[in-house]
Amino acid sequence: MSICNIFHYSTSIEDALQTLGNSKGIAKVLAGGTDLILDLQQGRHSPVDTLVDITNIPELNVLEYRDQKLFIGASVPHRMITNSPDVISHSQALAEASGLIGGPQVRNVATLGGNVAHALPAADGTIALMAMDAKAEIATLEGRRMTPLKEIFRGPGKSTLDPKKELLVGFYLSKKIENAGSSFKRIMRPQGVAIAILNCGLWLEREGNIVKDIRISIGPSGPVPRRLIEVENSLRGKQPSTEAITEANIVLQEEANFRTSRHRASEEYRKEMAAVLLKNTLLAAWERSGAEGEFND
Length: 297
Ligand SMILES: Cc1cc2nc3c(=O)[nH]c(=O)nc-3n(C[C@H](O)[C@H](O)[C@H](O)COP(=O)(O)OP(=O)(O)OC[C@H]3O[C@@H](n4cnc5c(N)ncnc54)[C@H](O)[C@@H]3O)c2cc1C
Description:
By secondary structure, the chain is an alpha+beta fold. It is 34% helix and 25% strand. The radius of gyration is 19 Å and the shape is globular. Bound molecules: flavin-adenine dinucleotide. Residues 28-36, 38, 54, 74, 100-102, 106, 110-111, 113-115, 117-118, 123-125, 161, 167-168, 194 line the site of flavin-adenine dinucleotide.
Protein backbone atom coordinates (compact mmCIF):
# COMPACT_ATOMS: atom_id res chain seq x y z
CA MET A 1 0.00 0.00 0.00
CA SER A 2 1.35 3.41 -1.00
CA ILE A 3 1.67 5.98 1.79
CA CYS A 4 0.80 8.96 -0.47
CA ASN A 5 -0.55 9.86 -3.90
CA ILE A 6 2.23 12.24 -4.88
CA PHE A 7 5.86 11.98 -3.78
CA HIS A 8 7.93 14.96 -4.80
CA TYR A 9 11.69 15.57 -4.45
CA SER A 10 12.38 19.27 -4.04
CA THR A 11 15.71 20.90 -4.67
CA SER A 12 14.71 24.39 -3.54
CA ILE A 13 12.73 25.89 -0.69
CA GLU A 14 10.45 27.76 -3.10
CA ASP A 15 9.66 24.59 -5.04
CA ALA A 16 8.88 22.71 -1.80
CA LEU A 17 6.54 25.47 -0.60
CA GLN A 18 4.80 25.68 -3.98
CA THR A 19 4.26 21.91 -4.09
CA LEU A 20 2.91 21.88 -0.52
CA GLY A 21 0.58 24.81 -1.30
CA ASN A 22 -0.70 23.25 -4.56
CA SER A 23 -1.54 19.90 -2.96
CA LYS A 24 -5.24 18.96 -3.24
CA GLY A 25 -5.24 17.14 0.10
CA ILE A 26 -3.06 16.80 3.21
CA ALA A 27 0.54 17.65 2.34
CA LYS A 28 3.59 17.04 4.52
CA VAL A 29 7.26 17.72 4.37
CA LEU A 30 9.41 14.60 4.64
CA ALA A 31 12.94 14.78 6.04
CA GLY A 32 14.53 11.63 7.51
CA GLY A 33 11.09 10.05 7.90
CA THR A 34 11.98 8.41 11.23
CA ASP A 35 8.92 9.99 12.86
CA LEU A 36 6.57 10.64 9.95
CA ILE A 37 6.87 7.37 8.01
CA LEU A 38 6.32 5.31 11.17
CA ASP A 39 3.34 7.50 12.13
CA LEU A 40 1.83 7.01 8.66
CA GLN A 41 2.50 3.28 8.56
CA GLN A 42 1.18 2.70 12.07
CA GLY A 43 -1.93 4.87 11.64
CA ARG A 44 -0.97 7.63 14.08
CA HIS A 45 -1.11 10.18 11.23
CA SER A 46 -4.01 10.62 8.78
CA PRO A 47 -3.16 9.48 5.25
CA VAL A 48 -1.46 12.18 3.20
CA ASP A 49 -1.98 13.20 -0.41
CA THR A 50 1.47 14.70 -1.00
CA LEU A 51 4.87 14.09 0.55
CA VAL A 52 7.61 16.58 -0.26
CA ASP A 53 11.13 15.27 0.33
CA ILE A 54 13.31 18.18 1.44
CA THR A 55 16.56 16.33 2.11
CA ASN A 56 18.12 17.45 -1.20
CA ILE A 57 17.58 21.17 -0.69
CA PRO A 58 21.13 22.54 -0.36
CA GLU A 59 20.40 25.36 2.12
CA LEU A 60 18.67 22.99 4.54
CA ASN A 61 21.81 20.83 4.71
CA VAL A 62 24.25 23.56 5.65
CA LEU A 63 26.10 23.85 8.97
CA GLU A 64 28.03 27.13 8.92
CA TYR A 65 28.67 30.49 10.58
CA ARG A 66 26.31 33.33 9.65
CA ASP A 67 26.48 36.81 11.19
CA GLN A 68 28.43 35.64 14.25
CA LYS A 69 25.95 32.78 14.85
CA LEU A 70 26.20 29.08 14.17
CA PHE A 71 23.52 28.10 11.63
CA ILE A 72 22.31 24.49 11.46
CA GLY A 73 20.03 23.73 8.50
CA ALA A 74 16.79 21.92 9.31
CA SER A 75 17.75 18.83 7.26
CA VAL A 76 21.16 18.37 8.87
CA PRO A 77 21.17 14.86 10.35
CA HIS A 78 22.01 14.20 13.98
CA ARG A 79 25.19 12.31 13.01
CA MET A 80 26.63 15.43 11.45
CA ILE A 81 25.63 17.58 14.45
CA THR A 82 27.10 15.28 17.06
CA ASN A 83 30.39 15.02 15.11
CA SER A 84 30.72 18.70 14.26
CA PRO A 85 33.67 20.38 16.03
CA ASP A 86 31.77 23.70 15.73
CA VAL A 87 28.68 22.37 17.49
CA ILE A 88 30.83 20.66 20.11
CA SER A 89 32.69 23.85 20.91
CA HIS A 90 29.74 26.29 20.85
CA SER A 91 26.80 24.14 21.84
CA GLN A 92 27.98 21.04 23.63
CA ALA A 93 24.48 20.31 24.96
CA LEU A 94 23.14 19.99 21.41
CA ALA A 95 26.06 17.81 20.28
CA GLU A 96 25.37 15.52 23.24
CA ALA A 97 21.62 15.40 22.60
CA SER A 98 22.04 14.57 18.90
CA GLY A 99 24.57 11.87 19.83
CA LEU A 100 22.01 10.14 22.05
CA ILE A 101 19.16 10.03 19.54
CA GLY A 102 18.30 6.50 18.38
CA GLY A 103 21.20 4.41 17.12
CA PRO A 104 23.70 5.10 14.30
CA GLN A 105 21.19 4.21 11.56
CA VAL A 106 18.61 6.65 12.93
CA ARG A 107 21.20 9.42 13.45
CA ASN A 108 22.36 9.01 9.82
CA VAL A 109 19.00 10.13 8.45
CA ALA A 110 16.99 11.74 11.27
CA THR A 111 17.20 15.52 11.20
CA LEU A 112 17.16 18.33 13.73
CA GLY A 113 14.30 20.05 11.86
CA GLY A 114 12.19 16.89 12.05
CA ASN A 115 12.92 16.58 15.77
CA VAL A 116 11.65 20.14 16.36
CA ALA A 117 8.71 20.08 13.92
CA HIS A 118 7.41 16.83 15.44
CA ALA A 119 6.89 18.94 18.58
CA LEU A 120 7.20 16.31 21.28
CA PRO A 121 7.79 17.70 24.78
CA ALA A 122 10.88 15.55 25.40
CA ALA A 123 12.50 15.43 21.94
CA ASP A 124 16.20 15.40 22.74
CA GLY A 125 17.40 17.87 20.10
CA THR A 126 14.56 20.25 20.90
CA ILE A 127 15.25 20.24 24.66
CA ALA A 128 18.92 21.05 23.99
CA LEU A 129 17.99 23.84 21.54
CA MET A 130 15.64 25.35 24.16
CA ALA A 131 18.48 25.48 26.70
CA MET A 132 20.76 27.04 24.08
CA ASP A 133 18.11 29.73 23.36
CA ALA A 134 18.11 28.87 19.65
CA LYS A 135 16.14 30.91 17.15
CA ALA A 136 14.39 29.21 14.25
CA GLU A 137 14.15 30.54 10.71
CA ILE A 138 10.88 29.83 8.93
CA ALA A 139 10.27 30.25 5.19
CA THR A 140 7.00 31.01 3.43
CA LEU A 141 6.44 31.99 -0.20
CA GLU A 142 6.04 35.57 1.02
CA GLY A 143 9.38 35.69 2.84
CA ARG A 144 11.26 34.54 5.91
CA ARG A 145 11.04 35.24 9.62
CA MET A 146 12.98 34.42 12.77
CA THR A 147 11.20 33.11 15.83
CA PRO A 148 12.14 31.92 19.32
CA LEU A 149 11.85 28.15 19.40
CA LYS A 150 9.07 28.10 21.99
CA GLU A 151 6.71 29.80 19.50
CA ILE A 152 6.76 26.63 17.38
CA PHE A 153 4.99 24.40 19.91
CA ARG A 154 1.22 24.19 20.37
CA GLY A 155 0.74 20.86 22.20
CA PRO A 156 2.14 17.32 22.34
CA GLY A 157 2.99 16.45 18.72
CA LYS A 158 1.41 19.69 17.47
CA SER A 159 3.40 22.56 16.03
CA THR A 160 2.24 26.04 15.07
CA LEU A 161 3.77 25.55 11.59
CA ASP A 162 1.27 25.63 8.74
CA PRO A 163 2.13 22.38 6.87
CA LYS A 164 1.05 23.83 3.50
CA LYS A 165 2.69 27.23 3.81
CA GLU A 166 5.68 27.05 6.16
CA LEU A 167 9.03 25.31 6.22
CA LEU A 168 11.69 25.30 8.91
CA VAL A 169 14.91 26.51 7.30
CA GLY A 170 17.22 26.04 10.27
CA PHE A 171 18.39 27.16 13.68
CA TYR A 172 20.71 29.93 14.87
CA LEU A 173 22.86 29.40 17.96
CA SER A 174 25.02 31.94 19.76
CA LYS A 175 28.73 31.32 19.89
CA LYS A 176 30.22 30.19 23.19
CA ILE A 177 31.14 33.05 25.50
CA GLU A 178 33.90 33.03 28.07
CA ASN A 179 33.06 31.26 31.34
CA ALA A 180 29.98 29.58 29.89
CA GLY A 181 29.23 25.88 29.55
CA SER A 182 26.34 23.61 28.60
CA SER A 183 25.33 20.01 29.08
CA PHE A 184 22.60 17.56 28.09
CA LYS A 185 21.73 14.41 29.99
CA ARG A 186 18.82 12.01 29.99
CA ILE A 187 17.43 9.07 31.90
CA MET A 188 16.25 6.10 29.85
CA ARG A 189 14.69 2.78 30.61
CA PRO A 190 17.41 0.14 30.44
CA GLN A 191 15.34 -1.85 27.93
CA GLY A 192 12.32 -1.40 25.71
CA VAL A 193 10.93 1.83 24.29
CA ALA A 194 13.43 4.39 23.07
CA ILE A 195 11.88 7.39 24.76
CA ALA A 196 13.38 9.31 27.62
CA ILE A 197 11.98 9.03 31.14
CA LEU A 198 13.40 12.53 31.49
CA ASN A 199 15.95 14.68 29.73
CA CYS A 200 17.62 17.96 30.59
CA GLY A 201 19.48 20.61 28.62
CA LEU A 202 21.27 23.28 30.60
CA TRP A 203 23.40 26.31 29.74
CA LEU A 204 25.05 28.61 32.26
CA GLU A 205 27.44 31.51 32.50
CA ARG A 206 29.71 31.74 35.53
CA GLU A 207 31.12 34.79 37.24
CA GLY A 208 33.75 33.64 39.71
CA ASN A 209 31.98 31.02 41.77
CA ILE A 210 28.49 32.39 41.09
CA VAL A 211 25.95 31.38 38.43
CA LYS A 212 25.60 34.67 36.55
CA ASP A 213 22.99 33.44 34.08
CA ILE A 214 21.33 30.10 33.41
CA ARG A 215 18.80 28.40 31.09
CA ILE A 216 17.23 25.05 31.91
CA SER A 217 14.90 22.86 29.88
CA ILE A 218 13.59 19.55 31.20
CA GLY A 219 11.44 17.22 29.12
CA PRO A 220 8.75 16.18 29.45
CA SER A 221 7.70 18.69 32.09
CA GLY A 222 4.50 19.86 30.41
CA PRO A 223 2.62 19.51 27.12
CA VAL A 224 5.25 21.43 25.13
CA PRO A 225 9.04 21.73 25.33
CA ARG A 226 9.74 24.53 27.81
CA ARG A 227 12.25 26.40 29.91
CA LEU A 228 11.89 26.23 33.68
CA ILE A 229 12.08 29.93 34.40
CA GLU A 230 11.44 29.73 38.16
CA VAL A 231 14.15 27.10 38.62
CA GLU A 232 16.52 29.29 36.61
CA ASN A 233 15.64 32.26 38.87
CA SER A 234 16.30 30.20 41.96
CA LEU A 235 19.84 29.32 40.82
CA ARG A 236 20.83 32.64 39.24
CA GLY A 237 23.22 34.65 41.44
CA LYS A 238 24.09 31.67 43.64
CA GLN A 239 27.07 29.40 44.05
CA PRO A 240 26.13 25.84 43.08
CA SER A 241 26.03 24.11 46.46
CA THR A 242 24.04 21.31 48.02
CA GLU A 243 21.83 23.96 49.61
CA ALA A 244 21.25 25.88 46.36
CA ILE A 245 20.46 22.69 44.44
CA THR A 246 18.09 21.51 47.19
CA GLU A 247 16.25 24.84 47.01
CA ALA A 248 16.15 24.67 43.20
CA ASN A 249 14.70 21.19 43.44
CA ILE A 250 11.82 22.42 45.62
CA VAL A 251 11.04 25.01 42.93
CA LEU A 252 11.41 22.37 40.22
CA GLN A 253 8.80 20.11 41.81
CA GLU A 254 6.38 23.07 41.84
CA GLU A 255 7.08 24.41 38.38
CA ALA A 256 7.37 21.22 36.34
CA ASN A 257 4.44 18.95 35.68
CA PHE A 258 5.78 15.41 35.97
CA ARG A 259 2.98 12.97 35.21
CA THR A 260 2.77 9.20 35.34
CA SER A 261 3.24 7.81 31.84
CA ARG A 262 2.68 4.19 30.89
CA HIS A 263 5.58 4.37 28.44
CA ARG A 264 7.97 6.36 30.59
CA ALA A 265 7.64 6.09 34.40
CA SER A 266 5.54 7.00 37.43
CA GLU A 267 5.17 10.57 38.62
CA GLU A 268 6.94 9.74 41.90
CA TYR A 269 9.92 8.17 40.17
CA ARG A 270 10.20 11.05 37.74
CA LYS A 271 10.09 13.61 40.53
CA GLU A 272 12.92 11.88 42.35
CA MET A 273 14.99 11.43 39.20
CA ALA A 274 14.43 15.01 38.04
CA ALA A 275 16.34 16.21 41.09
CA VAL A 276 19.26 13.90 40.27
CA LEU A 277 19.20 14.91 36.60
CA LEU A 278 19.14 18.61 37.38
CA LYS A 279 22.11 18.29 39.74
CA ASN A 280 24.20 16.19 37.33
CA THR A 281 23.49 18.39 34.32
CA LEU A 282 24.18 21.55 36.30
CA LEU A 283 27.49 20.28 37.62
CA ALA A 284 28.63 19.15 34.15
CA ALA A 285 27.88 22.59 32.67
CA TRP A 286 29.48 24.27 35.71
CA GLU A 287 32.69 22.32 35.22
CA ARG A 288 32.67 23.16 31.48
CA SER A 289 32.37 26.84 32.30
CA GLY A 290 35.90 26.55 33.67
CA ALA A 291 35.04 26.29 37.37
CA GLU A 292 37.64 24.42 39.36
CA GLY A 293 36.79 22.77 42.63
CA GLU A 294 34.23 25.44 43.37
CA PHE A 295 31.21 23.24 44.00
CA ASN A 296 30.47 23.73 47.63
CA ASP A 297 29.08 20.31 48.67
C1 LIG B 1 14.32 3.78 16.45
C2 LIG B 1 14.10 5.23 16.73
C3 LIG B 1 14.73 5.81 17.81
C4 LIG B 1 14.53 7.17 18.09
N1 LIG B 1 15.16 7.69 19.17
C5 LIG B 1 14.97 9.00 19.47
C6 LIG B 1 15.63 9.57 20.59
O1 LIG B 1 16.39 8.92 21.30
N2 LIG B 1 15.38 10.88 20.87
C7 LIG B 1 14.54 11.65 20.08
O2 LIG B 1 14.37 12.85 20.38
N3 LIG B 1 13.92 11.12 19.01
C8 LIG B 1 14.10 9.84 18.69
N4 LIG B 1 13.46 9.29 17.59
C9 LIG B 1 12.56 10.12 16.81
C10 LIG B 1 13.16 10.74 15.52
O3 LIG B 1 14.26 9.99 15.04
C11 LIG B 1 13.63 12.20 15.73
O4 LIG B 1 12.58 12.99 16.24
C12 LIG B 1 14.14 12.78 14.41
O5 LIG B 1 14.95 13.91 14.70
C13 LIG B 1 13.03 13.19 13.45
O6 LIG B 1 13.64 13.70 12.28
P1 LIG B 1 13.24 13.21 10.82
O7 LIG B 1 14.11 13.93 9.89
O8 LIG B 1 13.24 11.73 10.72
O9 LIG B 1 11.72 13.77 10.75
P2 LIG B 1 10.54 13.29 9.80
O10 LIG B 1 9.98 12.01 10.30
O11 LIG B 1 10.92 13.37 8.38
O12 LIG B 1 9.51 14.48 10.11
C14 LIG B 1 8.94 14.65 11.39
C15 LIG B 1 7.91 15.79 11.32
O13 LIG B 1 8.59 17.01 11.07
C16 LIG B 1 8.10 17.64 9.87
N5 LIG B 1 9.26 18.28 9.28
C17 LIG B 1 10.47 17.72 9.03
N6 LIG B 1 11.33 18.65 8.57
C18 LIG B 1 10.64 19.83 8.52
C19 LIG B 1 10.97 21.16 8.12
N7 LIG B 1 12.20 21.49 7.69
N8 LIG B 1 10.01 22.11 8.19
C20 LIG B 1 8.77 21.81 8.63
N9 LIG B 1 8.40 20.57 9.02
C21 LIG B 1 9.31 19.59 8.97
C22 LIG B 1 7.49 16.50 9.06
O14 LIG B 1 6.50 16.98 8.16
C23 LIG B 1 6.92 15.64 10.17
O15 LIG B 1 5.68 16.18 10.59
C24 LIG B 1 13.65 7.94 17.28
C25 LIG B 1 13.04 7.35 16.16
C26 LIG B 1 13.25 6.01 15.88
C27 LIG B 1 12.58 5.41 14.70
